[in-house]
User: Which sequence fits this backbone?
């Protein structure tokens, strides 16, 4: 029993030494990698600016809605008049 | 062909399971029901304990041909996946695909916490030897302290296949009990002030480093400990699927369908090994007691090293993250977070604890590699003689022959 106990203690000490050695090698390897290849922040995403075409689409939508409401209010067909310009104040 | 009612009825009666039911079967059926109960109603590792418990139930139905020893039976085929070391590495492939090593890469010194927690493995090994187990068996029992189910199964199937069932049950049961086992030890070993330590935010890591990491670990660790290649190699391959960004389909399969299928096969196979003859022994009680010791000592090892790191860094490391070094991903990291948040609700330790947690997976795999290097190829003298006579044989068969030789020696 004493021999087995001593063998187990020896194995434990040896194994812990191996584990610490392997993982220490890994730590230095990772640190080397991180130093060699540093993190670079990705370029900032382009800001959402309204393009001319999307502004045009919005204006068409507004014109269609205003035409429909006016036609209903005046009791006329939407084909009888035309909105030619919408200007912002 | 003539049929008499009496003879036919008698034949049917003798072919029912009841006719062969023994007390061992009944006890094991009750054990399987307890496992199913714990899985469903107590939520103890249900993904594993449920199929494992049901596999145990199937294996203990007499004449069902579902025990792992029933050659030609369904679960015997599943068990070949353990015997031939197929299923645990495949689980590791899935685990690798699920794991983000980012926190570890951001703070690589936490690998030492994963190493320190392995002290549980070796204290348990010494304890097992003192309780009368041989070195192969003690190594397989000690690895329970690694808190890693597939690693425990892998080592048990290699070094002590006759103890596979109790080792697997102890490993998974205690893994599910981590939230109960660890907090009292963590609180006992730390002061309120230490638990309130807030750690600096982790720095981001380049994607290229994340891609190179699995390749580098495979080269470094597997060259040092080739025996661990099936486990660590698969873990790192799964992680490479995840990080490379070019194998989305393989990554998705590995982290979902594959790991789920393999979990079912593995748990059923382990359950099928829980027969009365292999489980209802004094050794099982010893293994369950040693498993608890392994988890407690592993937690203490991680905590003590966490405290050392805390002192050495001038209080920049919260020692609570040390307990996560026991593997049991991600539950041990969650426990660190919870105990830290109990002391200070504004303290967020989860990401910091994930570093030592995944380091624990690597640490326990390395510990397994050390055992394989020391005992994997060594065989008792008569065993070697048989191997010479019949040529190169498989590791599983080697272990089986070793058992036979041991039994013959005991009879003499």
Assistant:
């Amino acid at each position: 029993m004493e021999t087995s106990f001593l063998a187990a203690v020896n194995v434990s000490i040896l194994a812990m030494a191996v584990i610490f050695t392997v993982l220490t090698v890994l730590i230095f390897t990772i640190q080397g990698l991180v130093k060699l290849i540093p993190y670079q922040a990705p370029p900032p995403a382009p800001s959402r600016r309204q393009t001319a075409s999307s502004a045009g689409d919005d204006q068409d939508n507004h014109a269609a809605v205003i035409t429909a409401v006016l036609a209903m209010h005046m009791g006329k067909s939407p084909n009888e008049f035309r909105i030619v310009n919408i200007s912002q104040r | 062909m003539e049929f008499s009612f009496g003879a036919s009825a008698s034949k049917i009666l003798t072919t029912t399971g009841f006719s062969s039911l023994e007390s061992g079967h009944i006890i094991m059926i009750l054990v399987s029901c307890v496992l199913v109960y714990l899985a469903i109603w107590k939520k103890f590792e249900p993904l594993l304990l449920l199929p494992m418990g049901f596999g145990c139930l199937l294996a203990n139905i007499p004449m069902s041909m579902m025990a792992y020893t029933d050659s030609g039976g369904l679960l015997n085929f599943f068990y070949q996946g353990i015997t031939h070391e197929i299923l645990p590495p495949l689980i590791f492939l899935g685990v690798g695909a699920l794991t983000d090593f980012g926190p570890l890469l951001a703070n690589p010194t936490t690998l030492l916490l994963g190493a320190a927690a392995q002290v549980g493995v070796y204290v348990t090994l010494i304890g097992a030897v003192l309780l009368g187990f041989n070195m192969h068996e003690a190594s397989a029992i000690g690895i329970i302290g690694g808190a890693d189910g597939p690693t425990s199964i892998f080592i048990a199937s290699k070094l002590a296949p006759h103890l596979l069932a109790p080792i697997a049950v102890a490993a998974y049961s205690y893994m599910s009990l981590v939230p109960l086992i660890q907090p009292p030890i963590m609180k006992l070993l730390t002061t309120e002030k230490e638990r309130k330590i807030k750690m600096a935010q982790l720095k981001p890591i380049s994607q290229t480093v994340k891609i190179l990491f699995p390749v580098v670990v495979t080269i470094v660790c597997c060259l040092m400990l080739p025996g661990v290649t099936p486990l660590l190699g698969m873990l790192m391959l799964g992680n490479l699927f995840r990080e490379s960004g070019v194998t989305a389909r393989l990554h998705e399969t590995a982290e979902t369908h594959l790991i789920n299928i393999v979990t079912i096969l593995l748990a059923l196979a382990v359950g099928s090994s829980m027969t009365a003859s292999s489980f209802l022994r004094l050794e099982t009680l010893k293994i369950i007691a040693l498993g608890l010791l392994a988890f407690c000592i592993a937690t203490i090892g991680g905590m003590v090293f966490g405290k050392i790191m805390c002192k050495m860094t001038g209080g920049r490391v919260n020692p609570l993250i040390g307990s996560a070094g026991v593997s049991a991903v991600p539950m041990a990291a969650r426990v660190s977070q919870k105990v830290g948040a109990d002391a200070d609700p504004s303290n967020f330790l989860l990401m910091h604890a994930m570093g030592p947690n995944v380091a624990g997976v690597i640490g326990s795999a390395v510990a397994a590699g050390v055992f394989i290097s020391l005992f994997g190829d060594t065989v008792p003298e008569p065993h070697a003689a048989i191997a010479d006579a019949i040529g190169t044989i498989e590791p599983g068969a080697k272990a089986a022959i070793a058992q036979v030789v041991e039994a013959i020696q005991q009879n003499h």
In short: The interface with chain A takes residues 104-105, 108-109, 111-112, 114-115, 118-119, 121-123, 125-126, 128-130, 134-135, 138-139, 203-206, 208-209, 212-213, 216-217, 220-221, 224-225, 359, 362-363, 366-367, 370-371, 374 of chain B (CB under 8 Å).
